[in-house]
From TrEMBL, chain A:
It comes from Pararhodobacter oceanensis. Pfam families: SoxG (PF04268). This is Sarcosine oxidase subunit gamma. InterPro entries: SoxG, TrmE/GcvT-like.
UniProtKB/TrEMBL annotation, chain B:
This is Sarcosine oxidase subunit delta. GO terms for molecular function: sarcosine oxidase activity. GO terms for biological process: tetrahydrofolate metabolic process. It holds the Pfam family SoxD. InterPro entries: SoxD (IPR006279), SoxD_sf (IPR038561). Coiled coil: none annotated. It comes from the Bacteria.
Length: 187, 107
């Protein structure tokens, strides 16, 4: 088995905000009927979280469940166990109209930390972050590419994008968070 | 710049987060249909000055298609609604009628 490497290992930058690549993270795309109790039970078994409401992310003991679209969730689990979680999901959802696919190595995961995180994100995403609650998630674009952004806690934000555009998103975030580019809109 | 509300995820976002997908409520005429019907389905599109119904896709968001009723002249958006409809729903028609009393209704 080859050694797994995340998109931009150990990338870090400090400017208006602290940027960091989150490292190897297990991610599973689960598609199916989100109202189904069988699916809810499978999500709970995989992450400990309940099925999130629209545009929300729920945390459990062993992972997170993020709402991606009316029929899609992103399950965030430890990297090493992801393949096993997919197997367990497939077993649990055997009779359901649902699919689970591991996408850990197809995504890049960034963490944005600091009081100016919203200002930095608002420079690249066409989103009003003023009443963005903790646990809320938004799929949008970061400049030219698709991304999902959510608020983990107060000043800690997460951003997930396709791995193929990881360098682009990294350069983008690092550029807009250079000192001197303060906006000071969100306080 | 249009501000559209995706009925699938409830997000109100600006135009660049969406992708236009042409005229709404087209009826498909496939193999075995009349040549004239097929030609109209394939090539003939409405191009009104005023109220128009379009398909849009929330391309950078939830990825779902939906329909939007808007004015091509003023860019006013009257409303957005489910793509799983064959004609504009009554509440959308009422909203358009309130804003454009001269509108003749969906044809």
């Amino acid at each position: 088995m080859s050694e797994a490497v995340s998109a931009l290992p150990h990338a870090q930058y400090s400017g208006l905000v602290d940027l960091a690549e989150a490292g190897l993270t297990g991610m599973i795309t689960l598609r199916g009927d989100l109202a189904s109790p069988v699916l809810a039970e499978a999500v709970r078994a995989a992450t400990g979280a309940s099925v999130p409401e629209v545009r929300r992310i729920e945390a459990g003991e062993s992972g997170q469940a993020a709402w991606m679209s009316p029929d899609e969730l992103l399950l965030i689990v430890p990297y090493e166990g992801a393949a096993g979680v997919v197997e367990a999901l497939e077993t649990a959802l055997a009779g359901e109209f649902a699919t689970a696919a591991e996408v850990s190595d197809a995504r890049a995961f960034f963490r944005i930390t600091g009081p100016q995180a919203r200002d930095v994100l608002a420079k690249v995403c066409p989103v009003d972050f003023s009443d963005f609650a903790v646990g809320e998630l938004r799929r949008t674009r970061a400049a030219q590419v698709a991304a999902a952004v959510w608020r983990e806690e107060g000043d800690v934000w997460s951003l997930v994008c396709f791995r193929s555009v990881a360098q682009y998103v990294w350069d983008l975030l690092a550029t807009v968070s250079k000192p001197g580019g303060e906006v000071g809109f969100y306080r | 710049m249009l501000l559209l509300t995706c009925p699938c995820c409830g997000v109100t976002a600006e135009e660049t987060e969406f992708h236009n997908a042409g005229e709404a409520h087209l009826k498909r005429y496939g193999p075995g249909s009349d040549d004239a019907d097929y030609e109209a389905y394939m090539f003939a599109r409405k191009n009104p000055r005023g109220v128009h119904f379009e398909r849009w896709r929330h391309a950078f968001g939830c990825g779902k298609f939906f329909h939007a009723a808007r004015c091509t002249m003023t860019l006013e958006v009257f409303g957005t609604y489910s793509a799983q409809t064959l004609a504009p729903p009554a509440e959308i028609a009422a909203k358009i009628k309130a804003r454009r009393p001269e509108w003749e209704g969906y044809k």
